[in-house]
Task: inverse folding
């Protein structure tokens, strides 16, 4: 296999790390909605926690995205 | 298709000058498009805050209400997370929040996003973590290291927990940097890729099939632009929230939780 092709395949494979981040962020927002619909009066105070949780889960996916971009443009 | 990564290139706007910096060596400096975007963002923040506080009234007008909402949001955030001591740290968090917000929003209007440069976001991450270290050591001295020793952990697992806490502390500036950089860069790459599809369809490279492709990709571009406005605000807000949480760890060391 040519090195150029292997590099592009590697960049694409690195992007699969985003799957985990997608599951994580979806899980956080889904759980938030489940909780918020059961107790809407407490939902407003948890918006900050919601976004912090989503940001922390997303950061790990962003790491794989950065690796993919690094491989692609290396 | 045009290269979607071309938009992130730094281009000098003035003639380049080579200077000799002590300790670092020879550096080429020039007034670049990144520098221009940051200067415009800085000017926008100063202009906005000057305008909203120019004719301050008891019953706020539209402009003043916008400024007060931003101010009140960060004020409430710092107050609810850090508490009583947060008042002293509010200017730091508010400055970082407004500057990142202005650069993110300007990236959607200009052709260049300053926060999609890892050098810019890394500077913010390093400033934040240096602030945390400085406050921790000035306020608590050597007791700062108890930050890595959580209470109530059984002693057999304590060494491992300390190592994990220490590594996660070292990773904080890295994730702060990469989250902002990755979100801004990823969003703008996606925008340009879909805009590139629309250009290909108009060019007639795929015949009459280009009509539905053009409609779909242009619709996607419009939708993504709307989403990018949300992301631009959200990432600035998340940066401010995480900065506040990290500062809270050292301000209320040992009794913050």
Result:
């Amino acid at each position: 296999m040519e090195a150029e092709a292997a590099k592009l395949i590697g960049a694409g494979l690195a992007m699969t790390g985003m799957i985990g981040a997608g599951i994580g962020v979806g899980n956080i927002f889904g759980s938030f909605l489940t909780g918020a619909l059961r107790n809407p009066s407490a939902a407003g105070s948890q918006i900050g926690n919601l976004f912090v949780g989503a940001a922390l889960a997303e950061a790990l996916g962003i790491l794989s995205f950065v690796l993919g971009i690094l491989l692609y443009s290396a | 298709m045009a290269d979607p990564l071309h938009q992130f290139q730094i281009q000098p706007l003035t003639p380049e000058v080579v200077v000799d910096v002590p300790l670092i060596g020879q550096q080429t400096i020039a007034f670049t498009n990144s520098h221009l975007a940051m200067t415009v963002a800085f000017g926008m923040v100063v202009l906005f805050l000057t305008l909203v506080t120019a004719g301050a009234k008891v019953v706020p007008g539209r402009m003043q209400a916008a400024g007060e909402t931003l101010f009140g949001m960060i004020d409430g955030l710092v107050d609810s997370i850090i508490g009583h001591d947060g008042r002293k740290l509010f200017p730091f968090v508010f400055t970082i929040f407004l500057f990142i917000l202005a650069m993110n929003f300007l990236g959607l209007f200009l052709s260049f996003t300053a926060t999609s440069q890892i050098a810019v976001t890394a500077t913010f991450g390093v400033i934040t973590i240096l602030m945390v270290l400085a406050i921790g050591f000035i306020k608590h001295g050597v007791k700062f290291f108890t930050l890595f020793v959580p209470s109530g952990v059984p002693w057999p697992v304590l060494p491992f927990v300390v190592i994990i806490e220490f590594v996660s502390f070292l990773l904080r500036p890295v994730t702060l940097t990469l989250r902002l950089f990755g979100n801004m860069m990823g969003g703008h790459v996606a925008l340009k890729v879909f805009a590139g599809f629309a250009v290909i369809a108009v060019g007639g490279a795929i015949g009459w099939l280009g009509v539905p492709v053009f409609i779909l990709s242009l619709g996607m571009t419009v939708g993504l632009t709307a989403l990018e406005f949300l992301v631009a605000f959200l990432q600035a807000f998340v940066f401010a929230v995480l900065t506040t949480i990290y500062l809270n760890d050292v301000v209320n060391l040992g009794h913050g939780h």
Notes: Chain B has six helices and two strands. Residues 6-11+18-53+60-251 of chain B form one domain. The beta strands of chain B are 17-21, 25-29.
